[in-house]
Amino acid sequence: MAIRSPRAAAASMAAALTLALASSEVQAAGFSVFEQGARGMGFAGAYTAQSQDPSAIFHNAAGIAFLKGKRIYFGGTFVKPYTDFTGADPYPGAGRTETGDVGVIPLPALYYSQQFTDRLSFGLGVNTPYGLKTQWAEPDTYSGRYISLMADLKSVSINPVVAYKVEDRLAIGVGVDVRFSKVTLARRVPLVNPFTLKVIDVAQVDITSD
């Protein structure tokens, strides 16, 4: 029978605890839009513990419990994505450059908060948590057109919340997020010409959600 030393047992327990507390895999937010207010953008998104304006509805619903009276906050962000890539062999070929062409995307936001009592507040937020797009210039010759020519994700969120101030520096909030979304995807369909043996575009597939 093997007898383990207390030091070895402690090391094994520490290793097991480390594995149990290890963080899980995380992924990028993709098309998410976190720019929901000037102050939040100024804080580089670290706005969860702030409550200076009604955009706290997006970051932390409990924050509006510290706002006085009635407040309305509206604004928006204009995004102009830019994407390009350089190809490699064998396809589409080394040195070939493709460029995105999306244009300017407006992302509006509107927030309202109202204090009912010294402790109870109500708020309503309307924003665009998703609203970005990918699209490529020169669609007839774009080398990736058989995979994706365009991907457009739009979403509008209606977010009513209620907040209650428990103490001077403590509040709780609860809300409902009603979201209306639409996605549009497009790509080309290829076919080999039996006479020239060249790949040609014969159709375009467009998928749009309701």
Describe the structure.
This protein has 210 residues and is mainly beta. The chain has three helices and ten strands; from the N terminus they run αααββββββββββ. The chain has helices spanning 6-20, 38-42, 56-59; strands spanning 70-79, 84-86, 97-99, 105-115, 120-127, 133-135, 150-167, 170-175, 178-192, 199-208. It is extended, with a radius of gyration of 26 Å.
Indicate the topology.
Elements lengths: L5 H15 L17 H5 L13 H4 L10 E10 L4 E3 L10 E3 L5 E11 L4 E8 L5 E3 L14 E18 L2 E6 L2 E15 L6 E10 L2
Shape: extended
Q: What share of the residues lie within helices? A: 10-25%
Query: What's the end-to-end separation, in Å?
Result: 67 Å
Task: Tell me the major beta sheet.
Answer: 8 strands, antiparallel
Please state roughly what percent of the residues sit in beta strands, choosing from under 5%, 5-15%, 15-25%, 25-35%, 35-45% or over 45%: 35-45%
Per DSSP E runs of 2 or more residues, the count of β-strands stands at: 10
What is the overall pLDDT average?
A: 84
Number of helices: 3
Sequence stretches where pLDDT stays below 50 over 5 or more residues: none
Rg over alpha carbons: 26 Å
Alpha-beta content class: mainly beta
Following the backbone from N to C, one meets helices and strands in this order, namely HHHEEEEEEEEEE
